[in-house]
Design brief:
By secondary structure, the chain is α+β, with helices and mostly antiparallel strands. The chain is built from 24 helices and 13 strands. The strands form three sheets. The protein has a six-stranded antiparallel β-sheet. A five-stranded mixed β-sheet has the order 8-10-11-13-12, with helices on one face.
C-alpha cells in the first residue's frame, strides 16, 4: 500500500509540474485574445487539481475537499473550452452543447458540495459521484465528436491533435469510472496514474495551439527539440520493452536465465547504438516528424542560419566546395555529391566531392545541361526526368549523368544571372518528396552558396594578379641588372680592339668578365630560389665605394672617391646596397662626358647617420623631371634605360631607414645624397637576434 501511495503522489506531482510548465509557456505565448485565455484557464485548473490530489494522498488536511471541488472546476474548464470552439464554428444554431454542459457541471458541483459538507443523501454519495464522472466522460466524447464533425475538411488538420487528446483523456476516465461503477469502488492502481495520463496528452494540445491562429497563441516548438525528445522517448520505450523481455527470459530461463538476460541486454544496447549513429535512421525520423507534426517541412530561420554558418566556417577552397555540397545535401537528406565549377575557359570541371568518386568529366558551358540550368534556373530531378521527361522540355541530359548510379538532383549555382557551376546530389538516405517547398529552399540556398563561391573565385583571381604583378616587378629589376651587366660587356668589347695587347686591359677585362659572370650566377640562383636571400650584415661604406670605383676603372671619366670618415658601417644586404649605390654612380657616369668629373664622397653627419654624396658635372635634370618622373618606375631619359634603378634605390634606402635627396641644374650637373643610418633600428636588431637564435 505504501508503494502504491508513493506511485500516486509522484504521478500527480509530475502531472502538476507538466501542467504548470505548459501553463507558463501558454501565458508567455498568449496574445491576450481568442480562445487562448480559456485554454490557459483549463491548464491552470488542471495543475491545481493535480497538486490537490497529491496533497490528499499525502494526508494533508482539507486537501480531500479541495481535490473534489477542483475536479469539478477542471471538467468545467475543459468542457467550456470545447463548447466555446463549437460555438465559434457553428454560431448560435446549436444551443444544446452549452446547456447540457451546464447541467452536467451543476449536478457535479451539487454532488461535490454535499459530499464535502457531509450532508445526508437519499442514495450512496460515492456511487453518485462515480456516475456523474462517467456522465461527464461520455459527454466529453460527444462534444469532441461534434467538434470534429463541424470542422471543414480543410481545417481538421489544425484541431485533429486536440480532438485526439480530448478523446484519449475522456476514454481513460470512461474506463476508470465504468469499472468503478460496475464493481462499486475505484481501482486505485488506475486512479494513481490518472493525472499522469492526462498530462501525456499535452504535446498534442500544444501542436494544435501552434497550428490554429484563432486561439491567439504563438507557440514555437523547436524541431530539434521535437526530434531529440522523440528519439529519447522512443529509446526509453525500447529499453523498457527490452527490460521486460529480459525479466521474462531470466524468470523462465532456468539455469541459463541470467546469461540469456545479459546477452539480450548487450545485443539490445548494441542495436540501439547502431540505430543512434545511423544517418539513415535519423533522416527517416526527421522526415517523419516534419511531415506529420509541422505545417511546413522546414524551420526556415534555423535552416538558413545553419546553412550560412556552414558556408562561413570553411578554411580553404576545397573546404568551401565540400561545405557547399554538405550544406545543400543536408537540406534534402542526401548522402553527398560533387561540385562542378567553371574553369574560366567555358568548361565545368569537378572541383570538390563528398562521398562520391573522383570524376574527370567536363561539361561544356554550351552543352544542353548547362544551357538549361543557366536559362531556366531549375533544379533538375533525374528521377522525375526518367518518369516524366516532357517536364523538362527538349532537355536531354548528358550520358555520364544518366549513367550515374546514385545521381538524384542537379542544383545550379547562379551568381547574379551567371551560372558559375552546379552540384550533383546523390540519392537521399530516406525517401524525400521533392515538392515546391523543397525546390524553393534549394533555389534560395544555391544563390547563397554561389555568392560565396563567386567571391572565392574573385579573391583567387586577385591573388593571382598580385602574384603576376610581383613577378613582373621582380623581372623588371632583374632585367635592369642584366642591362647594366650587358652594358659593361659591350663597353669592354668596344675597347678590346684598341687595347687587346695591353696587359693591364687584359687583367681588367678578366676581372670584369668574372664580375659579370658572378652577378649573373647570383641572379639565376635567386630566380630559381635555390639559395636563400643573404641576411643583413654590417657593411663598410668606404670599402663599398672603393669596390664600385674599381669595377668602373676602365670607364671615362674616372670615378673619384673621397672618404672623410673611415670605418663607417651600416647594417644592410651588402649585394643589394652595392647595386643601389653602383647604379647611382653609373647614372652619373652616363650623364657626364669624358672630360667631366664624377665624385663619390663619404662622411659622417652625426653619431647615427652617414652620407654618401655622388656629384657629377653632367647634363643635369629639370625640376619638372625630378618632381614628376625621377622616382617613378619606368620613367627614364635614356634611350636604352628602363627607369627603375632610381626607384629601386630609394625604395631600399628607405627600407634601411634613410632617404635620398637630389639637387640638379640642367647643363651644370647633379648631386645625389644618400642618407643611411649607422645604427640598426630596434626592429632590425630584433630580427637579427631571432635569426642568430635560430642558427645552430
Amino acid at each position: 500500500m505504501l508503494e502504491l501511495t508513493s506511485v500516486a503522489v509522484w504521478g500527480y506531482a509530475l502531472a502538476a509540474a507538466a501542467f504548470g510548465l505548459f501553463g507558463v509557456y501558454l501565458a508567455a505565448a498568449w496574445r491576450g485574445q481568442g480562445a487562448g485565455g480559456r485554454l490557459l484557464l483549463a491548464v491552470g485548473v488542471s495543475a491545481a487539481w493535480c497538486v490537490a490530489n497529491a496533497a490528499m494522498i499525502s494526508g494533508l488536511a482539507f486537501a480531500g475537499a479541495a481535490a473534489v471541488l477542483l475536479a469539478v472546476a477542471r471538467d468545467a474548464a475543459w468542457l467550456a473550452f470545447v463548447v466555446g470552439l463549437i460555438h465559434q464554428i457553428d454560431g448560435s444554431r446549436r444551443a444544446w452543447p452549452a446547456r447540457v454542459a451546464i447541467a452536467v457541471i451543476a449536478l457535479r458541483l451539487l454532488t461535490a458540495l454535499m459530499t464535502v459538507l457531509d450532508l445526508s443523501w437519499p442514495i450512496d454519495p460515492q456511487r453518485a459521484l462515480i456516475f456523474l464522472h462517467l456522465v461527464a466522460a461520455v459527454y466529453a466524447l460527444v462534444l469532441v465528436e461534434q467538434l470534429y464533425r463541424l470542422l471543414p475538411a480543410a481545417s481538421r488538420w489544425g484541431l485533429k491533435p486536440f480532438c485526439l487528446a480530448m478523446a484519449a483523456s475522456a476514454v481513460f476516465d470512461l474506463y476508470l469510472y465504468a469499472d468503478a461503477f460496475l464493481f462499486g469502488a475505484i481501482d486505485r492502481d488506475i486512479w494513481s496514474i490518472r493525472g499522469l495520463a492526462h498530462a501525456l496528452v499535452l504535446p498534442l494540445i500544444a501542436i494544435s495551439a501552434s497550428r490554429v491562429p484563432g486561439w491567439a497563441i504563438r507557440l514555437s516548438v523547436s524541431r530539434e527539440m521535437v526530434f531529440h525528445s522523440t528519439a529519447l522517448a522512443a529509446s526509453g520505450l525500447y529499453l523498457l520493452l527490452v527490460a521486460a523481455a529480459g525479466y521474462y527470459v531470466r524468470y523462465f530461463g532456468g539455469d541459463w536465465g541470467r546469461a540469456l538476460q545479459v546477452t539480450l541486454f548487450f545485443a539490445a544496447l548494441l542495436l540501439l547504438g547502431v540505430v543512434a549513429v545511423s544517418g539513415t535512421q535519423r533522416a527517416r525520423l526527421r522526415v517523419w516528424l516534419n511531415k506529420h507534426l509541422f505545417p511546413y517541412r522546414y524551420d526556415y530561420r534555423i535552416e538558413w542560419l545553419k546553412f550560412t554558418r556552414a558556408l562561413s566556417t570553411h578554411g580553404d577552397h576545397q573546404d568551401l566546395g565540400q561545405t557547399t555540397i554538405r550544406a545543400l545535401a543536408d537540406l534534402v537528406e542526401s548522402s553527398g555529391g560533387g561540385l562542378w565549377l567553371d574553369d574560366g575557359q567555358g568548361r565545368f570541371v569537378m572541383r570538390a566531392r563528398l562521398n562520391m568518386a573522383e570524376s574527370s568529366i567536363e561539361e561544356s558551358a554550351d552543352g544542353p545541361l548547362c544551357r538549361f540550368l543557366a536559362d531556366e534556373g531549375w533544379v533538375f530531378n533525374l528521377e522525375e526526368y526518367r518518369m516524366r521527361p516532357k517536364t523538362y522540355g527538349e532537355l536531354t541530359p548528358p550520358r555520364w549523368l544518366s549513367e550515374l548510379d546514385d545521381g538524384w538532383l542537379v542544383v545550379p549555382l547562379t551568381a547574379g544571372e551567371t551560372l558559375i557551376g552546379f552540384v550533383v546530389l546523390l540519392a537521399p538516405r530516406t525517401p524525400v518528396d521533392i515538392n515546391w517547398e523543397v525546390l524553393d529552399l534549394l533555389k534560395s540556398a544555391q544563390r547563397q552558396a554561389a555568392s560565396y563561391l563567386a567571391r572565392m573565385q574573385a579573391a583567387e583571381a586577385l591573388i593571382e594578379a598580385r602574384k603576376f604583378d610581383a613577378f613582373n616587378r621582380m623581372s623588371a629589376f632583374v632585367v635592369h641588372d642584366l642591362k647594366n651587366l650587358v652594358a659593361q660587356m659591350s663597353l669592354m668589347l668596344k675597347n678590346a680592339e684598341r687595347h687587346k695587347d695591353n696587359p693591364e686591359f687584359q687583367a681588367d677585362m678578366l676581372e670584369t668578365v668574372a664580375h659579370v659572370e658572378q652577378k649573373m650566377r647570383d641572379l639565376m640562383q635567386q630566380l630559381q630560389k635555390k639559395t636563400a636571400i643573404e641576411r643583413d650584415r654590417q657593411v663598410d661604406l668606404g670599402q663599398l665605394l672603393e669596390r664600385i670605383r674599381k669595377q668602373r676603372a676602365h670607364l671615362q671619366p674616372a670615378v673619384s672617391v673621397r672618404v672623410e670618415a673611415p670605418a663607417i658601417q651600416v647594417r644592410a644586404n651588402a649585394e643589394r646596397l652595392e647595386r643601389v649605390v653602383g647604379h647611382i654612380v653609373q647614372n652619373a657616369l652616363d650623364a657626364t662626358g669624358d672630360d667631366g668629373m664624377v665624385t663619390a664622397c663619404l662622411r659622417r653627419l652625426d653619431e647615427t647617420q652617414a652620407l654618401i654624396e655622388v656629384r657629377d658635372t653632367g647634363c643635369g635634370m629639370s625640376p619638372e623631371f625630378m618632381r614628376d618622373q625621377l622616382f617613378r618606375p619606368f620613367q627614364t631619359t635614356k634611350a636604352s634605360g628602363m627607369g627603375i634603378g632610381v626607384f629601386e634605390a630609394r625604395q631600399y634606402v628607405r627600407e634601411l631607414g634613410g632617404d635620398i635627396r637630389v639637387e640638379s641644374t640642367p647643363g651644370v650637373g647633379t648631386t645625389m645624397q644618400l642618407t643611411l643610418p649607422t645604427q640598426p633600428r630596434p626592429d632590425a636588431d630584433a630580427v637579427a637576434l631571432a635569426h642568430s637564435d635560430s642558427e645552430p
